[in-house]
């Protein structure tokens, strides 16, 4: 029970990596807030996980909503030990083809959302004597990928923000780390398969991005997040844990 008696807020927890993390955290003894802008999906996950979980509808790019999320968590559950900044999404496009409004919308969620959630969580952590923050970055923050300029830039920003926050709050006993997943199967890829003119070729290329010749599953990232959130990682801060099937080792 590595998170026994701890409270965690997980953003983007209604699906994918966030949901897998919430499931694992509950099994490890935590009380978990399923924070997501999809009200129905968040409520369904909370029901699945039982009394240890509750749903909170939030747009992570909206400061007042994020502040209510953190304040409500502490008011109801007494403390905030772990924040997992996982909410995010991707879009296609290079600097020419990406519309300005699409760039802004993605940055608001992927990067500003991490800033806002941390901004309103950290004071609670300081007041109680410490905590842990785990951000979801990506391997593409280091190596890039064609036709995803906004997503690549946002995840590079998350990686840099992680290091900056770790330095700023080391004296507050708050550890800040990130995970850098490779290709992880999700509804994002499911939708791409549904609309692709050659699904089999697309899936084969997706697997071939890593020398292990497969994509990862959400639970494989959740286990890394659990480690960084737990006291087992007490000497880890400002670090990034890469889980990508060897993609960055090519």
TrEMBL record:
Family label = Belongs to the short-chain dehydrogenases/reductases (SDR) family.
Q: Which InterPro entries does the UniProt record give?
A: NAD(P)-bd_dom_sf (IPR036291), Sc_DH/Rdtase_CS (IPR020904), SDR_fam (IPR002347)
Q: Which organism is it from?
A: Lichenifustis flavocetrariae
Q: Which Pfam families match?
A: adh_short_C2
The cross-references to Gene3D superfamilies, in alphabetical order and at most eight, read: NAD(P)-binding Rossmann-like Domain
Q: Which GO terms describe its molecular function?
A: oxidoreductase activity
CDD domains attached to this UniProt entry = SDR_c
- Name it: SDR family oxidoreductase
- Out of the domains of life, which is the source? Bacteria
Q: Which UniProt keywords apply?
A: Oxidoreductase
The uppermost taxa in this organism's lineage are: Bacteria, Pseudomonadati, Pseudomonadota, Alphaproteobacteria, Hyphomicrobiales
């Amino acid at each position: 029970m590595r998170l026994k008696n701890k409270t965690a807020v997980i953003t983007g927890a209604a699906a994918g990596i966030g949901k897998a993390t919430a499931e694992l955290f509950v099994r490890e003894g935590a009380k978990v807030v399923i924070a997501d802008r999809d009200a129905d999906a968040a409520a369904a996950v909370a029901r699945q996980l039982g009394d240890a979980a509750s749903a909170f509808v939030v747009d992570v790019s909206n400061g007042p909503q994020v502040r209510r999320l953190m304040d409500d968590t502490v008011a109801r559950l007494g403390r905030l030990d772990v924040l997992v900044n996982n909410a995010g999404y991707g879009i296609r496009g290079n600097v020419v083809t990406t519309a300005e409004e699409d760039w802004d919308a993605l940055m608001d969620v992927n990067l500003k959302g991490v800033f806002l959630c941390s901004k309103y969580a950290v004071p609670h952590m300081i007041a109680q004597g410490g905590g842990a923050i785990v951000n979801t970055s990506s391997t593409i923050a280091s190596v890039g990928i064609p036709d995803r300029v906004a997503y690549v830039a946002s995840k590079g920003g998350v990686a840099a923000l992680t290091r900056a926050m770790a330095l700023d709050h080391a004296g507050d006993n708050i550890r800040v780390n990130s995970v850098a997943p490779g290709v992880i199967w999700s509804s994002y890829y499911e939708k791409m398969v549904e609309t692709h003119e050659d699904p089999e070729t697309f899936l084969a290329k997706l697997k071939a991005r890593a020398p292990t010749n497969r994509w990862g599953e959400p639970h494989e990232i959740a286990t890394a997040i659990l480690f960084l959130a737990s006291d087992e990682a007490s000497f880890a801060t400002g670090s990034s844990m890469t889980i990508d099937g060897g993609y960055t080792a090519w």
